[in-house]
């Protein structure tokens, strides 16, 4: 009797082309809703086409940014919730673009997954599409790659590249900042998408806490996992509108490195940024990490956003108007400091106690 030998096939090797095609169909309608008038063609081509409007800018400069979500994905995979991390991905990309004053035009995503489950992929990309709509940019194609043997069936990673445009004469940054400028803080929604390796070590390692555990201090009877999956705030649209209404000198996206590590990237060597930490109190999740994980205040400040997701630098004459404008757009904003003569340092003063 002959041994039965199974024919070799892509499916037998772990890649299901039909499942990938079904995932595309499930996400198609959400992706289509992100299309701007400049998008040429439809979903499914080999390359995304975008008819750039050269009449809108005198000296157009393209801006690009690439990022991922990091180990926050481990929380999403443990909780089997996949429709929010795409928003995080978009935020990390477009809010880096807007820092130089660029309007995000389009984004392309990359999803690497151990096994394509169409509904899961549709959730992931659906979240990316939601983020693109909120940011005002098109989701102009991408790639979903099934990697059996490299990733476990339930594992995935996501990344994206975004392209924006700004007029050369309107680029924001170091050269515009002057002593006396006011520092406006925009509230974060919580942890955003940085520092999750420390979060997991501080809160979850050794069974200290559980993701399904309800934490009264977090409010609304939220579980720890729900809090940790709170999507990153997308500031791009509001920031661009305020740039059109007020004189804005610089923006700083507060990601890994916290306030000191990111504000220092947009100030010159002849000034310091004085940030008054008494003007706000970070959300309870930060206290929880510091207390349960025994994380020092210095480590917290250089790892997390501590309640501020974006910094906006404006001249004193426009500070009140900028705060009012952000507030009218649903973004909590306040004057949190000042640019003073110095040597390129960021100084946090009048800290609240933990």
Automatic annotation (TrEMBL):
Entry keyword annotation includes Cytoplasm: yes
GO biological process: 'de novo' IMP biosynthetic process; adenine biosynthetic process
Residue span, PurM-like N-terminal domain: 61-166
GO MF annotation: an example: phosphoribosylamine-glycine ligase activity
Entries under InterPro entries matching the protein: PurM-like_C_dom (IPR010918), PurM-like_C_sf (IPR036676), PurM-like_N (IPR016188), PurM-like_N_sf (IPR036921), PurM_cligase (IPR004733)
E.C. code: 6.3.3.1
Recorded GO CC terms: cytosol
Main subcellular localisation: cytoplasm
Domain of life according to the entry: Bacteria
Location in or out of the cell: Cytoplasm
Pathway assigned in UniProt: Purine metabolism; IMP biosynthesis via de novo pathway; 5-amino-1-(5-phospho-D-ribosyl)imidazole from N(2)-formyl-N(1)-(5-phospho-D-ribosyl)glycinamide: step 2/2
Domain PurM-like C-terminal span(s) in chain numbering: 178-345
Enzyme class (EC, first level): ligase
Reactions performed catalytically: 2-formamido-N(1)-(5-O-phospho-beta-D-ribosyl)acetamidine + ATP = 5-amino-1-(5-phospho-beta-D-ribosyl)imidazole + ADP + phosphate + H(+)
Keyword terms: ATP-binding, Cytoplasm, Ligase, Nucleotide-binding, Purine biosynthesis
UniProt record similarity statement: Belongs to the AIR synthase family.
Name the record gives this protein: Phosphoribosylformylglycinamidine cyclo-ligase
Protein source organism: Cryptosporangium phraense
